[in-house]
Amino acid sequence: MPRSASDKRERLTAAAIRLARTQGLDATTIADIAAEAGVPSGSVYYYFKTKDDVAAGIADGIREALAAQAAEHADTSADARAALTAFLTSYVDESDAILDHGTVLATAARVGFSSAHEQALEWIAQQFEDLGFASSAATARAQHLLAGVEGGAALASALATATPLEREVAHLTRWVANAKP
C-alpha cells in the first residue's frame, strides 16, 4: 500500500527537524532532507519550496510535538505535580539526543520559532496555577523551571556529559515535589 501524502510530509518534517538539530538549518539542504526522509529530492519541493518553508515546517513540527507532549503529560498524570515531573523526566529520557544536538526548544529558537518557549512557559505556569499558585507566582516558577532544565541541558551538551542535566532535573523534581502555594 502506498504511503499517504501526509505521511511523506511528516517524514520530511521529522527529517528536517533532525537535521536542524544535528547540523543547523543553514547547513541543511533540500537534498539532505530528501536523503534523511528517504524520498526523491524533487518531491521535497512540493512541500518546501524555500528555506523559509523548511523553517516554517520545522516550527510546525515542533509545535505539534510540544502539543502532543503536553497532552501526553495531561493524559498520563493524575495531577499537575506529576505532569511537571514527567516533563522534567523527558529531558533525562532525551539526554543522548540533547548531548548530541541540543533540546527541541533550542532547535525551535534557532529556526525562528520563538513562541515555542512561550508555549512551554504557558503550559508550565498552568501546572503551577493548578497547584494553587497565583498567576504571577506560577509564571515566575515556570520561568525558573524552564531556565533550570534548559540551562542544565545546555551545560550537559557543552560538557558532553549528561550529569549536569541529570542533577538539575533531580533538583527541580524535588523542588516541584515540595512546592506549596
Describe this structure in words.
- By secondary structure, the protein is mostly helical.
- It folds into 2 domains: 49 residues, Homeodomain-like (Arc Repressor Mutant, subunit A), CATH 1.10.10; 116 residues, Tetracycline Repressor, domain 2.
- It is 80% helix and 0% strand.
- The protein contains 10 helices and no strands.
- It is elongated, with a radius of gyration of 18 Å.
- The relative contact order is 0.11.
- The model has no long low-confidence stretch (mean pLDDT 86).
Main traits of this protein?
about 180 residues, mainly alpha, elongated
Can I get a quick summary?
The protein has 181 residues and is mainly α. The chain is built from ten helices and no strands.
- Approximate strand percentage: under 5%
Termini separation: 55 Å
CATH topology of the largest domain: Tetracycline Repressor, domain 2
Largest sheet: none
What is the arithmetic mean of pLDDT? 86
Tell me the radius of gyration.
18 Å
Do you know the CATH architecture of the largest domain? Orthogonal Bundle
Q: DSSP helix count?
A: 10
Residues in helix, %: over 70%
Low-confidence stretches: none
SS elements, strand count: 0
Characterize the overall form. elongated
Domains, number = 2
CATH class of the largest domain: Mainly Alpha
| SSE sequence, one letter per element | HHHHHHHHHH
Q: Structural class of the secondary elements?
A: mainly alpha
